């Protein structure tokens, strides 16, 4: 197995055998990017392409040499000889192919984790927002504020456009306003935002995470490595607790907000 931990945008991906799980918006972005970098890419999904856009994307990837294995049973067994798995958000660790990868010590990254590792020199800062409720609205407001101030901003992540697509876009940006779900954060390990916020915490997706503690732990990963500010909800003590538990850069501040 090849060590991919140190690979970035300008590293040699030639010969890296990568599996992408899921052929939605994030999965297509991951597969397209990995093949562009030179990796040997396989995509699996239990679902066949459901619309014209997905069928066109499937045709494009196959023309580029990507091995698409779509349909029932395609995710039951982990392909041999993999160096990396990049999973779409929402794919639980208990999914057979991911469980087998983890048991075999094959690295499993989310699309957001891959995006972070592929940032170029001078990449725009990441302003990350998560929480049980209000994420999308808040990210859209943040993006509007940034644009109104004259910055070239984009709202990406769980709000719609994959983070990876924005990171690889040659059009320059000054900042990214990023909505992150608990699923995306679960599969992230090295993301270190400029600033981050957890808006609130309430029981959600517990069947996926297994417990409220595991769900909160996933949300709290948004604060890890923060460089400038950890924003939390004063009226939700659980969000402040996540800040206190986070390992952040020296000098990063904890900033509480209220609704009144």
CATH H-level superfamily of the largest domain: Mur-like, catalytic domain
Helix content: 25-40%
Total helical segments: 10
CATH architecture of the largest domain: 3-Layer(aba) Sandwich
State the order of secondary-structure elements, H for helix, E for strand: EHEHEEHEHEHEHEHEHHEHE
Instruction: Give the percentage of residues in beta strands.
Output: 15-25%
Structural class: alpha/beta
| CATH class value of the largest domain | Alpha Beta
CATH topology of the largest domain: UDP-N-acetylmuramoyl-L-alanine:D-glutamate ligase
DSSP E strands, number: 11
What's the N-to-C terminus distance? 54 Å
Textual characterization of the structure:
With 260 residues, the chain is an alpha/beta fold. The protein folds into 2 domains: 98 residues, NAD(P)-binding Rossmann-like Domain (Rossmann fold), CATH 3.40.50; 139 residues, UDP-N-acetylmuramoyl-L-alanine:D-glutamate ligase. It contains 10 helices and 11 strands. Strand 2, helix 2 and strand 3 form a beta-alpha-beta unit. The longest helix has 14 residues. The mean pLDDT is 94.
List the main descriptive attributes of the protein structure presented here.
260 residues, alpha/beta, Rossmann fold, UDP-N-acetylmuramoyl-L-alanine:D-glutamate ligase, 2 domains, six-stranded parallel β-sheet, five-stranded parallel β-sheet, 10 helices, 11 strands
What's the helix and strand layout?
Layout (H helix, E strand, L loop, with lengths): L16 E5 L3 H13 L2 E6 L6 H12 L3 E4 L13 E4 L8 H8 L4 E3 H7 L8 E5 L4 H14 L4 E5 L5 H6 L6 E5 L2 H5 L8 E4 L7 H4 L2 H9 L8 E5 L3 H9 L7 E5 L3
Parallel strand pairs: 1-2, 1-4, 2-3, 4-5, 6-8, 6-9, 7-8, 9-10, 10-11
Helix pairs in contact: 9-10
